[in-house]
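sorry for the late reply, my laptop died twice this morning and i had to redo everyting from scratch. anyway the thing you sent over, i finally got around to it. pasting the sequence first so we're on the same page, its 198 residues, then the predicted structure underneath. double check i copied it right bc i was rushing
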Amino acid sequence: MSSGVGSNRWLVVGLGNPGPEYEKTRHNVGAMLATQIASSRNAKFTSHKARASVAEFKLGVGGDAPSLVVAILRTYMNESGGPTKSLADFYKIPIERIIVAHDELDIPFAAIRMKRGGGDNGHNGLKSITQSLGTAEYFRIRLGIGRPPGSQDPGDFVLKPFNSTERSELPDFLSRAVAATEVLIEKGLGLAQQEFNQ
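ok and here's the structure:
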């Protein structure tokens, strides 16, 4: 790995919708993770012209320690692609070092699954990002929110806040997801999946 600028820089994008009315909803669990990653390193978010808030810091010490750009987008979920592409271009981060954290209906609440590439599974944020980047080959941290109970519409379910039981488990869920993100960056997808894909 060369020691040039950006040679080991990663972009982590936490998906969600902007505004206080969405802040605590299931659809914003990706943005919650981004916030948690930054606060675990005492990194502060600043406004970026790419319609995003970003926090920058190094994971570990030494010249070759990976540096992270953690982003929360200031656009609605279905417009996530433009800001993600602008950030990747601005920081010169290649596709293989882009990680998108998002809510996932198809896995149980608090489960974490990591993968690279694949479809968008009807997720408008992923659809927009894949379109803007021109490829689906970025990493995903899929944060389980579970399926809606009964006949509740999934579109309504994702825009509702977590229930009280889920809220009590959220801190542990997010701290495991922070650890999973760091292992993915420092040790690769295979080891991260072994440790965290339950």
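Confidence is low (pLDDT under 50) at residues 1-6.
thats about all i looked at so far, will dig more tmrw
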